[in-house]
């Protein structure tokens, strides 16, 4: 695909004398729509809670033993009390604590909104492509927006240690940083596939003071059981979640932090979309398409939900598209039903699109997307037709990522590459139809610690995976 697009775009590359180019660039007027910067004093002071605007209440979590709606009280042993309250809150806006707000400013926030003009010209499309730059913070992804909040609430409540899981390592890196900021210990169960593929992420977490172990591990009973039956198991997010929960329940001074899926996590990420709405207003632009990648749903929700609020009120015709890997096709081939959030069946049952909590995802490099289910609120929106979803193979998203790198100079994470693939396809479709659509996505992470994956792609070693059959869960009649 790359060379087909390149050949199609060749007429756009005129011969220019380098010296003339320098003079031209020096005197050319700046384009206000190339980069949109929101002043720090206009950063949102509240998070947006989409639960307040849904047409109906979400199907409640169920107790797996009684199959009846579950009280939030048992979650208090796992999570900080404040995030449990946010999980069930119906308030439309929840104030960002001053200490969290200050930490956001130092990331720094707000992050820029960029227009991908070079990519547009390369594709010779009338479409306009914008992306939010969530990769500019110290850990290189959007994940600190909730990591900082969760670490802060745990510090205030007197908890001393946090445990979590991580796929690609972006969430683990963010929580390691946030734990260091608030003086907490941090242990991370990193899915073995990514533990082996991404040693740089592991080093980043350890440099920030976290203890990192490959999951499945010998630290927990659940992990030891898996390794006894399958010593070469490459792990999954569901397994790592199980290990982290078991660890948490074994230590009174410890609480568990989750990097996606639950409402409070998606809530914290909406600072992204709230900023983006202001930035688009600054240049008098309204997106026609909002897209994002989905593993658990935090990247998509953080960017899209503030825009979705207008659609839910009938004030917007914007389309919303979620992109996932064909290797873990939860929303494109899964079923909308109740399932566990982890492999060991320690969580409540949640209504979501799932391919089954026992599914063993293949070792694709987009480790953050290797999850069997999705956020219940996102799944509801997909089920009701507010969001469409598409799936891509590993090699085609890396082709799209290479185009982005060679036009915009930005090497993106394998997760974000799924959105880039969609944006390029949609822009090329606009080229055929002549439509001038505005396409916007959340560039949620850089790929500077994923260069082994890029090397594998460029040297023909990258494999595509797609399940031939799926064993769907049958947990609730």
Explain what you see:
By secondary structure, the chain is of the alpha/beta class. It has 2 domains: 46-96 and 141-263, Rossmann fold; 107-139 and 269-458, Rossmann fold, CATH 3.40.50.1100. The chain is 40% helix and 15% strand. The protein has helices at residues 2-9, 18-27, 81-87, 98-105, 117-123, 144-156, 170-181, 192-197, 199-207, 221-229, 237-249, 263-269, 271-282, 298-312, 330-333, 376-383, 394-408, 414-433, 451-458; strands spanning 35-36, 46-48, 93-95, 113-115, 128-133, 161-166, 185-191, 211-215, 254-256, 289-293, 319-325, 335-340, 349-354, 388-392, 438-443. The strands form 4 sheets. It has a 7-stranded mixed sheet with strand order 1-4-5-15-10-11-14, with helices on both faces. Strand 6, helix 7 and strand 7 form a beta-alpha-beta unit. The longest helix is centred in the last third of the chain and has 20 residues, at 414-433. Mean pLDDT is 92; it is low at 6-30.
